[in-house]
Amino acid sequence: MARKESVTIDRILDASFTMTREEGFRNITARKVAAKVGCSTQPIFRVYKNMEELWDAVYDKAVQYFQDYISLFPRTGKRPFSNLGLAYIAFAKEEKQLFELLFLSFENSKKSMYEILNGDNDNVMFEIALARGQGCINPEEMFDKMWIFIHGAACLALTDNFQLSGVETLAMLEKTYDSFANA
Amino acid sequence: MARKESVTIDRILDASFTMTREEGFRNITARKVAAKVGCSTQPIFRVYKNMEELWDAVYDKAVQYFQDYISLFPRTGKRPFSNLGLAYIAFAKEEKQLFELLFLSFENSKKSMYEILNGDNDNVMFEIALARGQGCINPEEMFDKMWIFIHGAACLALTDNFQLSGVETLAMLEKTYDSFANA
DNA sequence: CATCAACTATAACACTTGTTATTTTACAAG
DNA sequence: CTTGTAAAATAACAAGTGTTATAGTTGATG
To answer: Do B104 and A155 touch (CB under 8 A)?
Structure first.
C-alpha cells in the first residue's frame, strides 16, 4: 500500500551517535547526519519531531554506551572502587566527547552523575557493599572521597594531563584507598 | 584630521569577557558583542582582525582573571596545597564558564593546565616548597596526588555535585593531605 | 497492471553566523 | 568654515542552521 522505508531510525541514530563520539554533541546538525546516512534531511524529521528529540536520543544512547563500557571492562583490581574507577578513567581518556557530555555539562544535564554511574546494575551500590564487606567503617563516605579522586583523574585524563598506564593507575587507586582507609 | 574613536578596544574586550563569564566562550558573536557595547559590528573588526583574534584576547584575559582570583583569595589553610586547592575549587563553583574554558577544553587549549595554574607568582612551586619545608619526602608526588583530588572536587563543583562549604572543604583537603602524608 | 499512500528528494523560508563593501558621520587641521 | 580622513553605521554577501512546503518516486495492494 505504501513505499518501503529505506532510512531507518537505527541508521539515523547510529550515524548521529558516531558523529557525537567523533566531533562532539553540539556539532551534529541535520544536514551532517543526512550526509553521513546518505539521504536528504527529510527522513530525519519523519523519525524525530525535531533536532532536540534526536539530541535526546543520542544522549540516552550515550548513557547506555557508558554503562555497557563499564560492565565489559576487565576487572583486575581487588580493592573497592578500583575496578569502577579504572573503567571510568579509561572511558574519559578514550571517549572524550561522550565523557564531557555525560559528566561535565553543567547546562542541560538530563541525568545526574550518580544516576548514570550507578546504572541498571548498581555499580556504586556494589562497590560500597564490597567496602563494607572488607571492614570499611563508613563506606558511603569512602565512596565520596574515592570518587573525588577518581573523577579528578578522569578529568585530567580528558585533557591529557594524566599520563599513567592502566596498571599504574590501578596501583595508584588502590594505594589511595589504603591511605584513606588507614587515616 | 580624523574622527575621534568612541569604541575602544577595552570596551570591546570587557564586553566580550563579561559575556564569556555569563554565557560561555562559544556564545560570543560579533553581533552580540556589538549590542552589548552599543555599536555596530564594524568597530570590532577595526580593533581585531577577526573573531578568532578576539577569542584569543578573551582567553588571555580569562587566564589573568584566574591568576588574580587565586592571588586575592583568603589564605586560611595551614597545610600545603590547601589554600591553592580551596581557591581553585571556589573558582570552579563561581566561574563555571571560565573554569571550563581554562581547564576542561580538550580542543583548542592554548596553555597547559600547569602553565595557567603556576602563573606569574609560582603558585605550585610555592606549595611544593611549603610541603618540603614541612618534612614531606616527595613533595612533587604529593602535589600530583593532591592535585588529582583537588581537580576532582573542582570538576564536581562545576556540575553542582560537590556540596561542601568553604570550611568543610578546607577540612577535607587537610585531612586528605594527612592521609597521603601518613601512608 | 493501475493506484495511491507513504517515503524521499528538492527547494525554499527565515534566521544566524563571520566578514566586507559602501555610505554616512564627526572632528581636527588648514 | 571648508576639507580631508578616520571611525562608525548600514547594508549586503556567502555560508550554515532548523524546519517545512512541494514535488517526485516507489512498491504493496486491489
So the answer is: yes
